[in-house]
Amino acid sequence: MQEVVAIHPELEAEQAFVDNAYRCLDEARDRALELVSMVEVGSGGTNQARFEREAIWGSVALRLEQLDLGDASLVFGRIDQEPEVGEGSFHIGRVGVWDDNQEPVVVDWRAPVAEAFYRATGPVPMGLRRRRHFVSRGRTIVGLEDELFGDLERFRTGDGGGLRGEGALIAALESARTGRLGDIVGTIQAEQDQIIRSPLPGVIAVQGGPGTGKTVVALHRAAYLLYTHRFPLEGQGVLVVGPNRLFLAYIEQVLPSLGEAGVQLATLGDMVGGVRISDTRDDEDVSRLKGDLRMVRTVARAARTRQQPLRDDVRVGHGLQWLTVPAAATAPIIAEARRRFRTHNAARRFVEAEFFAVMAEGGRGDLDPEGLRERLRGELAVREALEWMWPVLTPAQLLNDLFGSHALLRAADPSLTDAEVDSLYRPREQAPGDLLWSASDAPLLDEARAVLGPRPGRREEDMVRTYGHIVVDEIQDMSPMDLRMLDRRSLNGSMTVVGDIAQATGAWAHHDWDSILDHLPDRRPARRNELTVGYRIPAPLIDVAARVLSRAAPDLAPPVSVRSDGDPPRFVKVVDMAADLAAAVLAELEAVGTGNLAVVVARSQVAEVEQVLVGAGIEFGRPTRRGLDERGAVVPVSLVKGLEVDAALVVEPARIVREQDQGMRALYVALTRATRRLTILHTEPLPPVLST
Predict the structure, then answer these.
(1) Which ranges of 502-557 does DSSP label H, i.e. alpha helix?
(2) Which SS3 state, helix, strand or coil, does residue 358 take?
(3) Which residues contact 627 (CB under 8 A, 6 or more apart)?
(4) Is residue 53 packed enough to be buried (19+ CB in 10 Å), middle (13-18) or exposed (0-12)?
(5) Which of 641, 677, 638, 634 is nearest to 659 (CA)?
(6) Is the dihedral of CA 39, 44, 46, 50 positive or negative?
(7) Mean pLDDT of the chain
(8) Is residue 189 within 8 Å of 161, Cβ to Cβ?
(9) Which residue stretches of 426-529 are H helix?
């Protein structure tokens, strides 16, 4: 069914078509810019004119982002229909393009008619007689690959599966990595497309081993949903959540390359406003404690302990008389405020009003409580009393006070052991706003925000933003508190969550999908999918990783690689790591040419390895918010998950296993990052699973 021709007879014609498509694209960009001059407003323009200008500027900016493809190819395929379907031909591309007569030149890959490009098979051709894949470099077509449908002999043999556009796929897989994840829009396979075009409502969970494309599938699904459900998703918002900022930098170009630049990318820490949160988590035991759902009760009680009646009467001078608020009168105020209000900060105005009402009742004459409030609220005694009874709090203030006091921790959760209290304790800071919180604190700060509610006069600033659809990657490491935080941001329960149970290495490593889905929206039954084909990793590298997988997650099968060829992994035992590491790095960089290399190490070994490379004069990068910008980078195994590189140099696998609670899973992650070459460098004996 598949026909590949070295020099295709229609190559020249297709190149002319693509050239015309780019010409139409450029003209569309020019027309968008012309809209600006239509609403130019001088200094004397009306407010209406200025409003129209801003609206058109916003629309123009969005359209220009959609039309800016950078180096990406505009057209990557074509489908020809059978006569009974309509005998039409459609070129499939990254964005829709029309000519001057508004006739379609290129069909957006997300349009319904393009579905057959990804889904058609021999037994189910979906009305196609031919599917053509373009192999391009920028605007130039370098090859064509045709799949012809209607082969009766093929139907009889039952061979209807396999890869779609195998030549184009392999060419894309074997191209050098750039330190940024690229889209797969031209080579999406049928099992991936089924997930991408799945209906919007509810939660769809995707299990996928290394190299199966789960990350790009999730991102392409976000782009597809925005195209198909532009209203209401454009207004409701789409959120993509990644495990750390390095990962977000790695994937940040995918959605813009698909014409969708309005999607928000964030870590859990980025979603908690008003505080600074690092990507680093606490130690395993502390992270596990902070991720436990018992923290819901702890945070709620921590806020409740700040709601307390006065111990002593308050006496304030007012004119020629003294006004008093008896301590006994404040207990009913606290009780009533707790009964009436769902969130802490929302009750502050009520507490103040009742406080001054009691004060007015004890005075001589007809005193106005509101007038007293205006005149006396600045008095030190009054401020201290109200702050004692019912302080207005930010999440940072609440947790700073809580973690800074053994007594408050025990009062908030009497079930905490002494060891747990000691692990949560840290000296209280005078300025909570200056604190740098850990990633493990993010869900606690968010829980505190939910308990406290908006501060008076700060409602917009303190409200939690919700989204019409949420995409979550590497969800297998998220704690129940993390998942609760995500659930809080889902407007209608629509989510796409992807991960690999075999790569669960965090403090809350899940062993099945049930323990994840139990904490996510359940308005509809969750739909589960599994990606089984590995596109990125060659079979020889999958084979060695499969040995580790058999120990790390014996119930899971490794992905089946489509790339049977490839260099086998190299195991290099050295006597002096410092002497041989630099030589190994140089050798790998030379072997991958323009490709990139990740030196994957245990966290405790990062500084040691970096010092060796600095001493050898080797330039290298570090995992930062900018991603992996250098050809070579030193990456701790805790941050390498989700990344792909041409070559991986895994240093001291025994040390990686020893330092991680989920050591074998961490090693599995390290061994499955490379698309071309894998080298294991060690002085210590290898883990038995690798030495056999």
Answers:
(1) 514-517, 539-552
(2) helix
(3) 179, 180, 246, 249, 250, 252
(4) middle
(5) 638
(6) positive
(7) 89
(8) no
(9) 442-452, 459-462, 480-489, 514-517
Classified as helix, coil or strand, 600 is: strand
The reported pLDDT for the residue numbered 630 is 85
Q: Peptide bond before 199: cis, by omega within 30 degrees of 0?
A: no
Q: Is the pTM of this model over 0.70?
A: yes
Name the nearest CA neighbour of 627 among 584, 648, 598. 598
Q: How far is CA 306 from CA 189, 392, 430, in A?
A: 56, 10, 18
Q: How far is Cα 299 from Cα 145, in angstroms, rounded to an integer? A: 60
| Contact call for residues 7 and 141 (beta carbons, < 8 A) | no
Are 198-272+464-534 and 539-691 equal in CATH topology?
A: yes
Give the tokens for residue 623: 């995992």
Q: Kindly list the domain boundaries of the chain, sorted by start residue.
A: 2-161, 198-272+464-534, 314-389, 539-691
Helices (H) and strands (E) in the chain, counts: 29, 24
- 312 burial level (CB within 10 Å; 0-12, 13-18, 19+): exposed
C-alpha Rg value of the chain to the nearest Å: 30
Q: What mean pLDDT is predicted for residues 167-183? A: 74
Angstrom CA distances, 186 to 93, 121, 267, 314, 347, stand at 8, 17, 28, 74, 56
Select the more confidently predicted residue: 171 or 326: 326
Strand 570-573 relative to strand 674-682: parallel, antiparallel, unpaired?
parallel
Amino acid in position 526: A
Asked whether 243 and 477 are in contact (CB, 8 A), the reply is yes
365 conformational bin, left if phi > 0, alpha if psi -120 to 50, beta if neither: left
Tally Cβ neighbours within 10 Å of residue 100.
Answer: 8
598 closest CA partner among 537, 668, 664, 674: 674
Q: 496 forms bridges with which residues in the sheet?
A: 204, 471
Architecture in CATH of 198-272+464-534: 3-Layer(aba) Sandwich (3.40)
Is residue 493 a contact partner of residue 521, using CB atoms and an 8 Å limit?
A: yes
**Residue 74 to residues 25, 44, 79, 251, 460: CA-CA distances in angstroms?**
9, 43, 16, 20, 41
| Count of other CB atoms within 10 angstroms of residue 687 | 20
What are 120-172's pLDDT values in tens digits? 988 889 999 999 999 998 899 999 999 988 654 443 334 445 666 666 777 77
DSSP notation for 185-201: TTT--HHHHHHHTS-SS
CATH of domain 539-691: 3.40.50.300
